[in-house]
Design a protein that fits this description.
alpha/beta; Aspartate Aminotransferase, domain 1; Aspartate Aminotransferase, domain 2; 2 domains; 7-stranded mixed sheet; 3-stranded antiparallel sheet; 12 strands; binds pyridoxal-5'-phosphate
Length: 413
Amino acid sequence: MSPATSPATHLIPASAARPGDDPIFALNAEATRRAQGGEDVLNATLGALIEDDGQLAVMASVFEAMGRIPPRLAASYAPISGPTKYLNAILDDLYAGSPLRDSAVAVGTPGGTGALYSAIVNFLEPGQKLLTTSFYWSPYAILADHARRDVATFRMFAGDGSFDLDSLQSELAALMRAQGRALVVLNTPCHNPTGFSLDEDEWSALVAILLEAEKAGPVTLLLDLAYEKFARPDSPAWRPHVERLVNGGVPVLVAWTASKAFTQYGGRIGALVAAHGDAKERERYKNALGYSCRGTWSNCNHLGMQAVGTLLTDGALRQKSLAEREALRDLLDRRVVAFNREAARAGLAYPRYEGGFFVCVFCRDSAEVVRATQARGVFVVPLPGAVRVALCSTPEAQVPRLVDALAAAGAAG
Ligand SMILES: Cc1ncc(COP(=O)(O)O)c(C=O)c1O
């Protein structure tokens, strides 16, 4: 066949001009290239927890758990919605001791990403928009677009730096008028990219807003808990607020993932957990979410789900994994403390930051700040009106250098 008769591309138009490399991975590649060239590079771009010696942090207990899974079980297909032991372990992990334990169903997903995808396709019609904060993890938009849905945002921070509940309320009302249903996606605690976590008062106000909006049609909250296990132990309890929402008829979905909780980024082990007070409705959720599993990834990493099921339920292994994670959280917390101290000294403007993998620093021209910090070997990620700083990959001793580079680049408020 002559090339002249071939179309320019066999791809459908929507797929023909997709961007290539993910911008964050491209920045990481540049940082790595310069480091390999002998430069003293501080790479604060990637979202994985790195030890102070530059090695990826891993948990030995996870590999011990994997070693205990019989090979023929590990190698076999998992049930479509996930192994019962795993799903029960996730439900206990989230809701043990809460009435929600018996008001929730779960399916296995490839990481939190799979959980987000499944929520989007089952709780929004094609063409409708999910609602999230104006700063958000950029794959939300890719997931929505790829599923023929879209993203609407509310302003995340009011002028005084507080969580902008008024903007949430008005954007939610507008969305309810426009599409008659809403899926509100919130990543808290330890929001990526800002580091922000909702406090008690903000949670209470959020519950009131969602319950009010539910009067106009179905409203669902999707809580993205990707970083929850790295929140401070005294961070506000979200469960009582979720209980109030579910009691008031607003279903709450949780995107659960082992990527950060068990440092298994490549394991693709996650779950979508859906809580609703009515058993028949829960049955519909279970069926719909299981159908989405079959219609996308079919079933997930069997070895990974079995291992996480074991880690969450075997007494000794569970204790071991908790101790290992505690050490990792301490590592991260020391960086958070150092950042808060240094950033206050340098006068950087940034949101309330008590823990988590990232924080963002507000600035007028983020492209210029990124350029200027890179000139000093410091790599951060540009956002509209801010840069994202990955404390998860910044050794504690390098925090002053990071802050100085940001201040020198004009990021001081
Ligand atoms: C905010 C947020 N949500 C969800 C995820 C999902 O990650 P995974 O699919 O690896 O669980 C990430 C990962 O970086 C994230 O930052």
